[in-house]
Design goal:
The chain contains nine helices and no strands. The protein is mostly helical. Helix 2 crosses helix 6, helix 5 crosses helix 6 and helix 7 packs antiparallel against helix 8.
Length: 191
């Protein structure tokens, strides 16, 4: 089993937190996208760790790995087109995404100092916020925060939530203001 975490002291939680809401419901586009996001983070992590070409990793996942359970947890079927778009878009715009993320990190922090899984989550979430205006801000932030929660500790999850909130305020201020304030806490305030 793969366990991504930032420190050996934080417990490894299976991505069941990501799939829990899916239990008892029929598969739909929302659940297919949820699984695609999780698998995209795994693919981006693989690209980061191995230096593999994004197209090769997308092909591998679509052919063999999208349907695989994660840490013995079966997930709903992934939206393979959304998965491929998210991975390819994130990989091709990595420099711009890193600049957007760095702009909202605390002074002295750089994206390359972040753990690889957290960086993949932030890059993918930022790409979705910047490029998929058909998906509500709250949905994007919630989904990527759930992925962070599944693989990382509370501190990293709060960081992911806060960074994505700040980026959403910059990229989509009108939609962000329509969101309920308690669903979009400020950086560092946690979930």
């Amino acid at each position: 089993s793969t366990c991504w975490r930032s420190s050996s002291s934080s417990p490894c939680r299976p991505p069941a937190a990501v799939a829990d809401r899916a239990m008892g419901r029929r598969p739909d586009r929302r659940l297919a996208r949820r699984t695609a996001r999780l698998k995209a983070v795994q693919a981006l992590y693989q690209i980061e760790m191995t230096g593999a070409a994004p197209d090769a990793v997308v092909t591998e996942f679509v052919s063999h790995r999208l349907a695989e359970p994660v840490d013995d947890t079966a997930l709903p079927e992934a939206d393979s087109r959304f998965f491929a778009e998210l991975v390819r878009g994130t990989a091709s715009e990595r420099g711009e995404l890193d600049d957007m993320i760095a702009a909202v990190l605390k002074e002295g922090w750089a994206v390359d100092r972040l753990e690889a899984t957290l960086a993949a989550i932030l890059r993918a979430g930022t790409w979705e916020l910047a490029n998929r205006h058909d998906i509500p801000v709250r949905a994007t932030i919630s989904e990527f925060t759930d992925i962070a929660s599944a693989f990382m500790g509370e501190r990293e999850t709060a960081l992911a939530n806060g960074v994505l909130n700040r980026i959403a305020k910059e990229l989509r201020p009108d939609e962000f203001e329509k969101a309920a304030p308690d669903t979009l806490p400020e950086t560092g305030s946690g979930r």
